[in-house]
Write a structure and sequence with these properties.
heterodimer; A: mainly alpha; ABC transporter involved in vitamin B12 uptake, BtuC; two-stranded antiparallel sheet; 14 helices; 1% strand; B: alpha/beta; Rossmann fold; six-stranded mixed β-sheet; 24 strands; 32% helix; binds adenosine-5'-triphosphate; binds magnesium ion
Chain lengths: 312, 493
């Protein structure tokens, strides 16, 4: 086996794990391998996948974004409030997403210009925004807005079968794949994450990279917020709590290195699917939610350990 | 102690790096190990000190077969190595690095006072007494880090000392100190392996030489009975022609003018001019501020005083991106931390600076990029199986060529070179000199910092000599000598 072949096999590790888990579940639970259930899984995965795409760029850059769950909540609350106040649903949606972008760019500015460690900067943002979404919503869910258009964004189906959030996910997957693989920006993400000093001395504007990437992460979190709000037809100020951890898990399961510079978006998609399939399968088999957490945690640790072992 | 390695072979995956290499080393000798970049010198030495395991071959010490499974085994046998790539932990202090894993202790607690005192002694021995043992290793210049590595290896009191290009980042003064230490060790019966691409050094200190070519043993000679040409023939299997190719280009218009340049306390009062097609050499001792001039020109260090004029226009570059946009290129000194993204491929590194050249609307045209990279690999004779390999798997000298390649896609108006041939073999050096000449002929103004005086003398038109952050003079290379430059560099007249 040449090193390249080995590297490819290595990269496909998460995909193989997903196949094994899926085959196992279809044997153990007859309900798993039905079109309806699979679509259900995909729909559930889409929120985490959207957030995790943005998180992939952040982690490739050697950073971390803990504020995504709170960004999701704040833009969800604001979008709902706008619509309730009579704002056009499309406009409200766009404003909600723009707010996510804005919050992300503040993260980026604090990290790049203020030289604050990403963990701390986004931890602060996470707390502030969680507080603000409680303030704005007065601590209770916002309901009672209705728009057919808005309901479609997260709750609709194409051809009565394919959930629209899945379409968003595939679309964004394509966009992120292209950006990382084919654009100068993507190359600069890898370079900055791999060696920020060398990148800067090669003319990469590393400050701008940080700001850009955290902005993207905030945007994706807000987009996930729109999908969630639309599906639930309500905005919860407590929504998205802990989503940052699911997103990070998906990224790491997909083989992206937490030290930056190495990883790919396909891995993240697979990582998110793996988490989603596990959740679904364990539910179908009636495993208690307490044990579900234990099993999920063990799977994540095992997958990452296997990944490390393979790299040696 | 007599070390005999026989039939050593080693492959990394499908790449056969060493094939049946023999190597012998005797107590009280300084044994040169030479070969082109990628010939396998570092790999052979890493096998001897337990970093790698040989796939085949035997090792005997004083006639008794020995196996070295890891670095602990090697240390127990009294074998120490100064690695080619610097390995200090940047966040730790100099003394913590020196005594890593064997800190002097009292009642189980690190005895920092003793550690500090002993560190000072070892540093003073290698002529680096000015380094504060408590300083963060990462804050040292690369030459100083090299001295710390040397002090660390010496402090192990080894019977066999392997030095893998220890002088690559040192200037004359430290090298002289090092040679004196080596002579002393030799008299005390220590066996020294000396890997270097600097021919002058080999003839100055070594007793015997072994040469590797393409991972095979190419021959062993007694230094007193061989010469430059024979060694080169053993190394490359052919003549390399001129060691320092001449440049025909006539200096053109004034390109770069620097007046009274100063930064935050490292350099002050620097004034010089470079014309298109001209090479200005910069010489001086370690810490004299040579690299700082380049860093200030490139916008890495803050300029506090003075003017930089490029093609008649005042240059205000406060960051590297702006300097690059203005037409300045910078081949940095430390390829590992500043020059390369080690986890990226040769291709991705080579195009990092000028990726826009192969992109439209921000989208990279892979075909154009690949073609350009293959051209660069061919032009610079970069030895790599293919452009998609991680740059870190290349030999040191080939990595250096990749750093060079980054700037060649778009010939800059001014190219700043900081130790451009550090760790590059004779053939590779000649190739880099050809590239420098080609760039000069095309009108690039070149400022070259180098610690290798023969290189500075042969390649420059004029030489700026630095002494303690000030300029000690600008000499015409045609009339300057090693002595006149060293005198100026040490503050004499
Ligand atoms: N860990 C590794 N994995 C794969 N290939 C390697 C590895 N280490 C070295 N090589 C390859 O082995 C060959 C010999 O490398 P080595 O570092 O021993 O050369 P060298 O003679 O020390 O060269 P230089 O003068 O440039 O330091 C090179 O082609 C290099 O690319
Ligand atoms: Mg080497």
């Amino acid at each position: 086996m040449t090193p390249q072949q080995k590297a490819t096999l290595q990269k496909l590790g998460p995909f193989i794990a997903l196949l094994i888990v899926s085959v196992g579940l279809s044997v153990m639970s007859p309900d798993f391998l039905t079109v309806g259930n699979l679509m259900n899984v995909l729909r559930q995965v889409s929120i985490n996948a959207l957030i995790a795409f943005g998180m992939t760029l952040v982690i490739l850059l050697g950073g971390i974004d803990l504020s995504v769950g709170s960004i999701l909540a704040v833009s969800s609350v604001l979008t709902a409030m706008l619509m309730k106040a009579g704002c056009d649903p499309l406009l409200a949606t766009l404003i909600g997403i723009a707010i996510g972008a804005l919050m992300g760019s503040i993260n980026g500015l604090v990290i790049a210009k203020g030289k604050v460690a990403p963990f701390i900067a986004t931890l602060g943002m996470m707390t502030v925004l969680r507080g603000l979404s409680l303030v704005f919503s007065n601590g209770s869910p916002i309901t009672g807005f209705h728009s057919d258009f808005f309901s479609l964004l997260g709750g609709g189906y194409i051809a009565g079968l394919m959930p629209i959030p899945v379409v968003w996910t595939l679309l964004m997957f394509g966009v992120f794949w292209f950006v990382l693989k084919k654009t100068v920006f993507g190359r600069h993400v890898y370079a900055t994450g791999g060696n920020a000093e060398a990148a800067r001395l090669s003319g990469v504007k590393t400050d701008r990279m940080q700001i850009g990437v955290y902005t993207l992460s905030g945007t994706m979190a807000a987009m996930a917020g729109v999908v969630l709000t639309s599906r639930l037809n309500s905005a919860q100020p407590t929504a998205g709590a802990g989503y940052e951890l699911d997103a990070i898990a998906a990224v790491v399961l997909g083989g992206t290195s937490l030290t930056g510079g190495r990883g790919w978006i396909f891995g993240t998609l697979v990582g998110a699917l793996l988490i989603g399939v596990l959740n679904n399968g364990l539910n179908l088999m009636g495993v208690s939610s307490f044990y579900q957490q234990v099993i999920k945690g063990v799977v994540i640790l095992l997958a990452v350990l296997l990944d490390r072992a393979g790299k040696k | 102690m007599q070390i005999t390695m026989r039939g050593i072979s080693k492959a990394f995956g499908p790449v056969r790096v060493l094939e049946g290499v023999d190597f012998t080393l005797a107590a009280g000798e300084i044994h040169a190990l030479m070969g082109e970049n990628g010939a396998g010198k570092s790999t052979l030495m890493k096998i001897l000190c337990g970093v790698y395991q040989a796939d085949a071959g035997t090792l005997t010490i004083d006639g008794a077969p020995v196996t070295i499974r890891n670095t602990t085994d090697a240390e127990a046998l009294g074998i120490a190595i100064i690695h080619q790539e610097l390995n200090l932990i940047p966040q730790l202090s100099v003394m913590e690095n020196l005594f890593l894993g064997r800190e002097p202790q009292r009642l189980g607690i690190v005895d920092s006072r003793r550690m500090r005192a002993e560190a000072s002694e070892w540093l003073a021995l290698v002529g680096a007494g000015q380094i504060d043992p408590a300083a963060e290793a990462g804050s040292l210049s690369i030459g100083q880090q090299q001295l710390v590595e040397i002090a660390k290896a010496l402090s192990l009191n080894a019977q066999v000392l392997i030095m893998d290009e220890p002088t690559a980042a040192l200037t004359e003064r430290e090298i002289e100190t090092l040679f004196a230490i080596m002579a002393d060790l030799k008299n005390r019966g220590v066996a020294i392996v000396y890997v270097s691409h600097r021919m002058e050094e080999i003839f100055a200190v070594c007793d015997r030489i072994s040469v590797l070519r393409d991972g095979r043993f190419a021959g062993e000679r007694v230094i007193a009975q061989t010469g430059f040409d024979e060694i080169v023939r053993l190394m490359v299997g052919r003549e390399i022609g001129d060691r320092f190719p001449r440049r025909a280009a006539q200096p053109g218009a004034l390109r770069l003018q620097v007046r009274e340049l100063a930064d935050d306390g490292n350099i002050a009062g620097i004034s010089f001019e470079v014309r298109a097609g001209e090479v200005l050499g910069v010489a001086g001792l370690m810490g004299a501020g040579r690299s700082e001039i380049l860093k200030t020109l490139f916008g890495v260090n803050r300029k506090t005083h003075g003017d930089i004029v490029l093609d008649g226009v005042a240059l205000q570059a406060s960051n590297p991106a702006a300097a690059i946009a203005a037409g300045i290129g910078f081949v940095t000194e430390d390829r590992k931390s500043q020059g390369l993204v080690l986890g990226m491929s040769v291709r991705e590194n080579a195009t990092l600076v000028h990726l826009d050249e192969y992109a439209s609307a921000g989208i990279v045209n892979s075909r154009a990029e690949r073609a350009a990279v293959n051209q660069l690999i061919a032009d610079l004779h970069i030895r790599t199986r293919d452009a998609e390999l991680d740059v870190k798997s290349l030999s040191g000298g080939n990595q250096q060529k990749v750093v060079f390649a980054k700037w060649l896609a778009q010939p800059p108006k001014v190219l700043l070179l900081d130790e451009p041939t550090r760790g590059v073999d004779v053939g590779g050096k000649a190739e880099i000199y050809h590239i420098i000449n080609r760039l000069a002929a095309a009108g690039t103004a070149i400022v070259m910092v180098s610690s290798e005086l023969p290189e500075v003398l042969a390649m420059s038109d004029r030489i700026l000599v630095m002494h303690q952050g000030r300029q000690a003079g600008v000499f015409d290379a045609a009339t300057a000598t090693q002595e006149s430059i060293m005198t100026a560099a040490t503050g004499g007249n």
